[in-house]
Amino acid sequence: MPHVTRTITRPSPSLIETLSALPPATLHEAQGRRNALDWRIKPIYSGMRFCGPALTARCTPGDNLMLQVAISLAEPGDVLVIDAGGSSEQGPFGEVLATACVARGIAGLVINSGVRDAAAIHKIAFPVFSTGLSVKGTVKETLGDVNLPVVVGGVSIAPGDVIAGDDDGVVVVPAADAARIVTLSREREDKEAAFMARLRCGENVLQVLGMDRVLKAKGCTWES
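== 4-hydroxy-4-methyl-2-oxoglutarate aldolase ==
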């Protein structure tokens, strides 16, 4: 039976702010290369970026009724995460709903379907990550769920999980694990900064990254 939950538990604003300063690729690596959404879910324009707690909804393909319910319940900083059935044939989100999102202070949209009105959405600078663009409209008929776990891009996402996206794609950080992932991500950023400092000084990339040892262990031979 369709179900709508009005209230969710969100991570603290300070934790969201900390995570937002870390690249999604780093958050993915810090989780053991897990929780990255399918590569097909990408920003509709380069330069779009978001980070915030997920507010989830499940819609029937070709129907955006529950997407509108989700918008009505979202709080400033939330990221709408919509399971629209995986069909890119329709555009259940466009300029009108993007305008509503901006007015409510919503941080972004992730949806496993097409969207439309791309130029208008770009103009108002609302971050939208989708599987593509489609001029086809949708009906508003079928009930679904809001604020229950969904699977989008092959990843299970619960309401309140932190979701971050940039030009590379989208990654999920489970709310219960977010503080630990921050620590691991910072350690990775520091390590990579040290690597790049050595590379800028002209050191050999294989030695800096330790690949010389990997190649030797795998039995790679060299010939002059």
